[in-house]
Design brief:
Layout lengths: L1 E6 L6 H18 L3 E12 L2 E10 L4 E8 L2 H18 L1 H10 L6 E9 L17 E12 L1 H11 L3 E6 L5 E6 L5 E4 L6
Parallel strand pairs: 1-2, 6-7
Antiparallel strand pairs: 2-3, 3-4, 5-6, 7-8, 8-9
Function: Required for dimerization of active 70S ribosomes into 100S ribosomes in stationary phase; 100S ribosomes are translationally inactive and sometimes present during exponential growth.
Family: Belongs to the HPF/YfiA ribosome-associated protein family. Long HPF subfamily.
GO biological process, one term: negative regulation of translational elongation
């Protein structure tokens, strides 16, 4: 597994990097036989709190993400690792079933992502135009998944929503976390 361990305005020493590689490697390999790469970023929230954010990409195309906070950098990593362990343990059976049912990795389609400028004055006055200003253009990948896999991917990544192609009909679908705690599924093809 490839590791990218970095710090935002923090020097990440060799001892911490070795600790992260050893501990995270053991955690991920317990539940997934084929992780491809991991990104771990350390930062500071304020003068007293460290933040550790980890993202692990699995060879099946799924991604697991977790974050931890603590007053010490090693403790922040351990909190992050424990959350990752809990997520992967929760989905261990489904990850193995997913891997058995899917002989090839998840397919991804390219899609455009646009960042629109927020109009800070909309609450006070009417906007001059209804055409928003595009601040940035990027590319992203949209996975082709079943609805169950999409929900699992959303939960593993800790994301509030996931846009995906439904593998049954190829249409674009969305799963999202609702305010009541349930998961919503938007499938435009099922509207009548």
């Amino acid at each position: 597994m490839r590791y990218q361990i970095s710090g935002k305005q923090i020097d990440v020493g060799d001892a911490l990097q070795t600790h992260v590689k050893t501990e995270l490697g053991e955690t991920v390999e317990k539940y997934s036989q084929s992780p491809t790469d991991a990104t771990v970023v350390f930062s500071r929230n304020n003068a007293y709190e460290y933040i550790c954010e980890a993202t692990v990409h699995l060879s099946t195309g799924l991604t697991a993400a977790a974050a931890g906070h603590a007053t010490e950098i090693y403790a922040a990593f351990e909190a992050c690792r424990e959350k990752m362990d809990k997520q992967l343990r929760r989905y261990k059976r489904r990850l193995k079933d997913h891997h058995r049912d899917r002989p090839a990795p998840v397919e991804f389609a390219d899609a455009g992502v646009y960042v629109l400028a927020s109009d800070e004055h909309t609450a006070e006055a009417e906007p001059d135009t209804l055409n928003p200003i595009i601040v940035a253009e990027m590319e992203t990948k949209v996975p082709t998944l079943s609805v169950g896999e999409a929900v699992m991917q959303m939960e593993l990544a800790g994301a509030p929503l996931l846009v995906f192609r439904n593998e049954k009909h190829g249409g674009v679908n969305v799963v999202h976390r609702r305010e009541d705690g349930n998961v919503g599924w938007i499938d435009p093809r099922n509207s009548k």
